[in-house]
């Protein structure tokens, strides 16, 4: 390739000096001059927003005009780094430094920390001809240094404010560590608990996922991307990735148009509306075409109908993988297909950097396509304020004062508490009695300070979480004896993001101590579940029952002391019918993050009354998967007394715990469900909710609808509203929900949204199964 410095003598902007100050000042000066001249004409007639947009547009266009083709392609090239930017590059990164210095890289991922990002940025800004700053991206999935619950856990809060808080602190810490961009939120609606990445999403429901994903975007991005405390979000994976057949990661995806439009796309659309700055496409094919080369979803829908003006990054080498898919003959063809289809930036694929120039010369790729992609990348950089100051996020002092601060940890504890779901509580075992004198804290995860950090843990410090044991000890006080025993190990392999996990299936030497601890205690807290790297990318499981010797340990303890509270830790729904049958109390605590132990103690001792609700159905067995509440009716729904209906002959159709399920230390009663459909454009639904128990509690009241008959079959239930309400003992409240065409319609197979008149069921209650039902007739008026 040509060296841009020699091929574009007309550009004088950076000839004088290679120093950043000089470069950026010149860019700013040039931009400002042009902007002043061009924009001043509009100043009297336009609002300030429009002026801002014009400034942005003028700046980006002017910069683009100065760029060589090679430099433009560089902006579409993203590379990873795990090497210390102050030291020599390892073999895989040979040549990176030269490319960076030449301005032939637009973005890096996995460079983290104020110092490393500063060094990398300097390399580019001080040496390259135009000094265009890099955008640093990283997988900040549930916190940067201070860990919050895994996203599936946070979704159990059913609380957009809680989710937003978590994302905003993740953004603050990331920004302080020099980052500009997170590859989150993942908004893949997932119905298959075997797929390890359900841990990263908001569960199985498009409505809940839309609200929570949009909240996450707002949390990361704040009001203004240029604010130093915010970072750009990335809506991923566009689209359909969670529908990998048999829950096996990266597997084939086969989805109908109805599923695409009604289930998969809504959270993406909501996130675009919330201002998501970037998108990431996905590894899978959509109706035979890899997402990276899918013009329909990337150009027609996203950039066309939805008006998205940010950029789309490929997933890691997803452009290259089009060859393995059999969709492109070679990498060059893959590059051609992907850029034309609207994939703007190539993550670690080397497809664009190697072939786009040739493709333009051969007229296979129109320069306008390249320009559009580059403009999008530059626009996001502009919005982040990187042209004003490319180093503004890389400040070691700020980093030091921000990461893992007391305030961040206290927010993590709050979010963690809100994410806990009480699955079972026979005879009010929980909260534990104030008069209790001895507690056994047992299990392979009980004193594990690392597991609660979960997978995709960004820059968390290993073993830094508050363990269950620590949390319980801190709260119990000196009058309560805590008898701890591990019982057994869950895994025998070392914890490792990329390694295979080996479970302990033979070593029972710790059983006796655990049994002894249980025997001499009034109550047992048994912390079991999944290893933290058992869910996440590449972590699909054919069997979602608890692994290793954990169920055996449970049985051994149960034999001597059945007064057991199960403290579950897991990143996906697990099949635990035996625990449900025997253990009197079960707490779902996911991987709760840095403050896990304290949050669990808050709930165990009743300082916090749990209000989490499952964002994903818990199956009884592997054979029930995929199981989700918003399924279509069949022609033979049953239940019937004979065999010819849709069911298993060896197991109930019902899940172990349904979507939306979760108990409280108090009781709630729903009454007086009423529907007023006199104004068909705003159907009013009301219900009385009463706290009939003894203590204050918070309930998530859920509203579902069913369109009884439509031109395309509709699900038996669809969540269309929820309210999180706190009521004192005995208090009641009248809740009202409004249903408009936004809630009552659906997408047809061409992607057109329609509302059809006819009978609807409306259901309100405490979870997707226990509901009051009313019906109403939607008249044609609203359909017009
Ligand atoms: C994952 C993405 C992630 C990317 C960068 C890919 O393997 O699918 O979700 O953002 O790697 O780490």
Automatic annotation (TrEMBL):
<dbReference type="InterPro" id="IPR013783">
    <property type="entry name" value="Ig-like_fold"/>
</dbReference>
<dbReference type="GO" id="GO:0009251">
    <property type="term" value="P:glucan catabolic process"/>
</dbReference>
<keyword id="KW-0732">Signal</keyword>
<dbReference type="InterPro" id="IPR036962">
    <property type="entry name" value="Glyco_hydro_3_N_sf"/>
</dbReference>
<keyword id="KW-0326">Glycosidase</keyword>
<feature type="domain" description="Fibronectin type III-like">
    <location>
        <begin position="699"/>
        <end position="768"/>
    </location>
</feature>
<dbReference type="InterPro" id="IPR019800">
    <property type="entry name" value="Glyco_hydro_3_AS"/>
</dbReference>
<dbReference type="InterPro" id="IPR001764">
    <property type="entry name" value="Glyco_hydro_3_N"/>
</dbReference>
<dbReference type="InterPro" id="IPR036881">
    <property type="entry name" value="Glyco_hydro_3_C_sf"/>
</dbReference>
<dbReference type="InterPro" id="IPR002772">
    <property type="entry name" value="Glyco_hydro_3_C"/>
</dbReference>
<dbReference type="Pfam" id="PF14310">
    <property type="entry name" value="Fn3-like"/>
</dbReference>
<dbReference type="GO" id="GO:0008422">
    <property type="term" value="F:beta-glucosidase activity"/>
</dbReference>
<dbReference type="InterPro" id="IPR051915">
    <property type="entry name" value="Cellulose_Degrad_GH3"/>
</dbReference>
<dbReference type="Pfam" id="PF01915">
    <property type="entry name" value="Glyco_hydro_3_C"/>
</dbReference>
<dbReference type="InterPro" id="IPR026891">
    <property type="entry name" value="Fn3-like"/>
</dbReference>
<comment type="similarity">
    <text>Belongs to the glycosyl hydrolase 3 family.</text>
</comment>
<keyword id="KW-0378">Hydrolase</keyword>
<dbReference type="InterPro" id="IPR017853">
    <property type="entry name" value="GH"/>
</dbReference>
<dbReference type="Pfam" id="PF00933">
    <property type="entry name" value="Glyco_hydro_3"/>
</dbReference>
<protein>
    <recommendedName>
        <fullName>beta-glucosidase</fullName>
        <ecNumber>3.2.1.21</ecNumber>
    </recommendedName>
</protein>
């Amino acid at each position: 390739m040509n060296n841009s410095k020699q091929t574009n003598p007309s550009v004088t902007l950076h000839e004088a000096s290679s120093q950043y100050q000089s470069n950026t000042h010149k860019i700013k000066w040039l931009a400002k001059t042009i902007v002043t001249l061009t924009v001043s004409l509009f100043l009297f007639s336009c609002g300030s927003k429009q002026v801002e947009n014009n400034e942005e547009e003028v700046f980006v266009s002017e910069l683009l005009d100065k760029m060589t083709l090679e430099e433009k392609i560089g902006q579409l090239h993203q590379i990873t780094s795990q090497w210390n930017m102050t030291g020599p590059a390892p073999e895989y990164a040979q040549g990176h430094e030269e490319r960076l210095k030449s301005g032939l890289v637009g973005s890096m991922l996995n460079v983290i920390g104020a110092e490393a990002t500063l060094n990398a940025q300097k390399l580019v800004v001080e040496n390259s001809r135009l000094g265009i700053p890099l955008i640093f991206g990283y997988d900040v999935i549930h916190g940067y240094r201070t860990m919050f619950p895994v996203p599936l856990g946070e979704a159990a809060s059913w609380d957009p404010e809680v989710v937003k808080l978590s994302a905003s602190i993740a953004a603050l810490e990331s920004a302080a560590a020099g980052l500009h961009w997170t590859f989150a939120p993942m908004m893949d609606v997932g119905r298959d608990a075997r797929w390890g990445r359900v841990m990263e999403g908001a569960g199985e429901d498009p409505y809940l996922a839309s609200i929570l994903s949009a909240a996450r975007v707002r949390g990361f991005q704040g009001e203004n991307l240029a604010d130093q405390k915010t970072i750009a979000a990335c809506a991923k994976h566009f689209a359909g990735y969670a529908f990998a057949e048999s829950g096996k990661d990266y597997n084939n995806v086969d989805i109908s148009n109805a599923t695409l439009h009604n289930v998969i796309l809504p959270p993406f659309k909501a996130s675009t509306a919330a201002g998501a700055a970037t998108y990431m496409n996905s590894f899978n094919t959509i109706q035979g075409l890899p997402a990276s080369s899918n013009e329909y979803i990337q150009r027609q829908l996203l950039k066309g109908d939805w008006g998205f003006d940010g950029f789309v990054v490929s997933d890691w080498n997803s452009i290259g993988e089009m060859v393995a898919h059999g969709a492109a003959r070679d990498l060059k063809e893959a590059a051609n297909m992907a850029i034309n289809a609207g994939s703007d930036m190539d993550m670690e694929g080397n497809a664009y950097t190697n072939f786009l120039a040739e493709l333009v010369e051969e007229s296979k790729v129109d320069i306008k396509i390249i320009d559009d992609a580059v403009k999008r990348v530059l626009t996001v950089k502009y919005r982040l304020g990187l042209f004003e100051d490319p180093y503004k996020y890389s400040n070691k002092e700020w980093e030091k004062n921000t990461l893992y601060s007391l305030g961040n940890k206290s927010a993590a504890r709050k979010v963690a508490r809100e994410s806990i779901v009480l699955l079972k509580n026979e005879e009010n075992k929980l909260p534990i009695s104030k008069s209790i004198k001895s507690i056994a804290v047992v299990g392979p995860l009980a004193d594990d300070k690392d597991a609660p950090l979960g997978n995709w843990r960004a820059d968390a410090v290993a073993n830094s979480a508050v363990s269950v044991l620590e949390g319980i000890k801190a709260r119990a006080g000196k009058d309560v004896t805590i008898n701890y025993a591990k019982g057994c190990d869950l895994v025998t392999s070392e914890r490792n993001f990329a390694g295979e996990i080996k479970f302990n299936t033979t070593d029972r030497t710790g059983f006796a101590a655990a049994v002894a601890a249980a025997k001499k205690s009034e109550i047992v807290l048994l912390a079991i579940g999944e290893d933290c790297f058992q869910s996440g990318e590449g972590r699909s499981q054919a069997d979602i029952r608890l692994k290793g010797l954990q169920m055996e340990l449970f049985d051994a303890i149960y034999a001597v002391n059945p007064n057991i509270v199960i403290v579950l830790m897991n990143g996906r729904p697990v099949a635990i019918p035996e625990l449900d049958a025997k253990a009197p109390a079960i707490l779902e605590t996911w991987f709760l993050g840095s403050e896990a132990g304290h949050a669990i103690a808050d709930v165990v001792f009743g300082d916090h009354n749990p209000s989490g609700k499952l964002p994903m159905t818990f199956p009884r067995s592997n054979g029930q998967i995929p199981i989700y509440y918003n399924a279509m009716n069949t022609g033979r729904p049953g239940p019937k007394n004979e065999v010819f209906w849709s069911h298993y002959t060896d197991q109930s159709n019902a899940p172990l715990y349904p979507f939306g399920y979760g108990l409280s230390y108090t009781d709630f009663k729903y009454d007086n469900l009423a529907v007023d459909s006199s104004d068909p454009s705003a159907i009013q639904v009301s219900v009385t909710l009463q706290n009939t128990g003894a203590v204050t509690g918070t309930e998530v009241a859920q509203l579902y609808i069913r369109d009884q008959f439509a031109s395309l079959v509709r699900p038996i239930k669809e969540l269309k509203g929820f309210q999180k309400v706190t009521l004192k003992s005995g208090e009641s409240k009248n809740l009202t929900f409004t249903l408009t065409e936004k809630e009552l319609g659906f997408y047809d197979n061409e992607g057109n949204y329609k509302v059809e008149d006819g009978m609807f069921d409306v259901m309100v209650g405490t979870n997707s199964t226990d509901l009051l039902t009313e019906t109403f007739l939607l008249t044609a008026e609203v359909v017009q």
